[in-house]
Amino acid sequence: MSGPEGAGKVWVIGGGLAGLSTAVTLAGKGVAVEVIEGAAQAGGRCRSYVDPALDMTIDNGNHLVLSGNGATFAFLRAIGAEDRMAGPAKAQFSFHDVRSHQSWTIRPNEGPLAWWVMSAARRAPGTKLSDYLGLLALLNPRPDQRIDQVMTCSGPLWERLLQPFLLAALNTDPAAASAALAGAVIRETLAKGGRAYRPRIAHPSLSAAFIDPALAWLAARGARVRLGQRVRAARYEGERIAALTLPDGEIEIGPQDVVVMATPPWITQTLVPDLTVPDRFTPIVNAHFKIAPPPGAAPMVGVIGGKAEWIFAFEDRLSVTVSGADHLVDLDRETLADLFWRDIAAVHGLGERPPAWQIVKERRATFEATPDQAAKRPGARTRWHNLILAGDWTDTGLPATIEGAIRSGERAADLTFRALSRGNRI
Fold this sequence. Notes:
alpha/beta
């Protein structure tokens, strides 16, 4: 497929998942695309690297996707990497309470009629059928409502399933988080049945699944990707963006060109005048331990009552991810390693001394998913005729997730293609 006749070039600023999604979608339609990324590697917060302390490839964090994340799997199919996601054949979620040493596994049924909640053996221990009816309040809340304003945020169901699930999805204290964003996640996953929320993890790494195949796919189609070239400024003329300033000079934006700004909100705000963006962010803390998991270890275990949130078992390491980690992010690395290993040892029956480890802190991992911050998310359109925004922090209707980032790229690509088709007017 070739792009619109006489169309200009598309400059994608930012090589994270939103930018790569934009570029892949447009290149697939025959549009000339160039990606400019300020870091030395593409991927943004979805990246892998060889860690010298562990002498192995690790991800910056453990990013979970669900089988119902349609945009994510469409992107992976497009770049030929759908087979690089690993997970169970059916939805199941294992948990361990480190205080009581009780373990259980949630086993939903595949279809949307959630008969699994009627079985005590399949639902969270200590919960009853009527507890799950409270989830209905999340299906259609007002945009200004917090979760604690529409449902009870206490009790066995909250502690043993909803709180850890929503914390991972929202990266914000769930009680204070946006009920609308939580509802969007519920509608697209839990409400559709187990087939829509089978857990999936990138294998063998984030870069191997999402980034390297995308870069190779773009290169094969003639799309250029510049790394280590941070855009320092943008120049505007009338109703259009006219130039971008890079370390080695200025790029003129042609009269038929379109710019997609897919940078983090704090960077985008410096490049786009008078733009309102989310301005409060929440951290994620990850830990990686160089040890093979014990035989039969669950690929993913939710930790209740500990410092870890989720423990992931890979072939060569055990990893911990803690979302909404404001209470941990300022602790020193050694303390964090000891705290997390204590939970890993309790869950998997391992010794008290931790193996070689690495701690990775993402201080501004996502915007704070509260109603007031969600209200600051801009749409993809801007007041400039050739400038479009992309990123998981834009108004995707979802929290800041891989699915939201890729969906924002698809939206930006759709608007861009329409603009090119009608002579660069968004």
